[in-house]
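#structure-requests
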Amino acid sequence: MLYPTRSVTAHLYGSDRHCLNPLPTRIETLHELDIEVLEALGIRGLVLDFDRDWDMAIDQPLLPPVKSWLLKAQAAGLQMFALVNEGDAAQRWSQSLNVPIIYTTNRALLWVFREAVTCMNLTAKQVVIISDRLPSIWLDAWLSGCAPVQLGSASQPTSPQG
């Protein structure tokens, strides 16, 4: 399945600028990202930056669709790092899924991304950065050589209670 989005990602991967980009530049929920497409593109690592979602859901367990997607990605052999400013919610979720954390407070994201790529023992072109705060990380992701994907929400929208 190819996503019909054109972006900087196509340039990063040496594609013709008029070709369709196989990665989306924006997804609304994490489970919209097809793990098989990532594998087919040679993506072996993910840097997850969901601070906004983790802060909002500090007292809630990880939603089943998100946990399921993360476990499926791990089973497919994708390595992951979670970027965290601070907070116990991300710590709790990362421990339950065995996903290492990199704390980003007062650190330039470019160096954080490069550190994550090095720790995964991968090249930058094998790593996708998924963030809920793009475009603030777009330039750092691009400069580090990783493909950025903007995430609307790591979780499903909650239905109003009546």
